[in-house]
Amino acid sequence: MSLTEVIDGTQAAVTADPKNAAVSFTTTNDLVSGTATQVAVAVRDHSFGVDEPAVLGGGDTSANPVEYALAALGSCQVITYQFWAARLGIRLDDVSVKVDGDLDLHGFFGFDETTRAGFGDVRVSVTLTGPESPERYEELKRHVDQHCPVLDLFRNPTPTKTELTA
Amino acid sequence: MSLTEVIDGTQAAVTADPKNAAVSFTTTNDLVSGTATQVAVAVRDHSFGVDEPAVLGGGDTSANPVEYALAALGSCQVITYQFWAARLGIRLDDVSVKVDGDLDLHGFFGFDETTRAGFGDVRVSVTLTGPESPERYEELKRHVDQHCPVLDLFRNPTPTKTELTA
Q: pTM of the entire structure?
């Protein structure tokens, strides 16, 4: 199925019943040892490791959580560019996205309680290749930045509850 | 190095010069084709794929961006539990974290511009195993939720700039 067919098919399904637009995603995250963690994605058969580099006490066997967060953002931008280029009829030959995030470890370690634990600043650099005018690609960027799920997650608060069983 | 040694070593380095706490992370995210995207983590030698399931126009070769975002949160919780248990001297034998996120596709597809593109609701269920009292583990949870970088990313706005080269 082309992305245009997916968009049209989803629109038809959602028009028939708006509840068809409600989707849920689940991951389970289990300690292996130290900082090594194994992730399984529910329903679909995907799994991968997470770990810290040696300076943060890990075995460096995989990317760490904040790198996965930046990868979620960068890959979401790539895919949202693909969808919205199809939706708007804008030809796009290639997309590459670099994401940089700065973090102050005073927050994570609690050395300074006024420093936030998460990223203080994130920069996304998008490179598009194709035959359209720069103005057309700027128009595409506006639509992408308005509809990219992980960019929304970064820029805006998300209601997130934590619950403990011990 | 034990996590306690990492905490003490980082504290010494950061006390000597607060700038030692400033760290940056980078990923590059390149389109393969369709929705398939390849991620490389800068400096460290880690890479992985990202893709959508068939209903979202993908080849289902890997987890998708929002699943990686939930995995970033779940694994960050696991690792922050490990660090803060070491820091507070709380014995913890095992940690398992399930993360569920709900998303309304009206947002991503732009079928309704009043629906946010990202998660409307996220639930984190943490299961701890160990010999300490429930009160001790509740105390641990309070410290973890205050210092977990990806939980901070979910709950609070992060300054995120996007820049286009086309």
A: 0.97
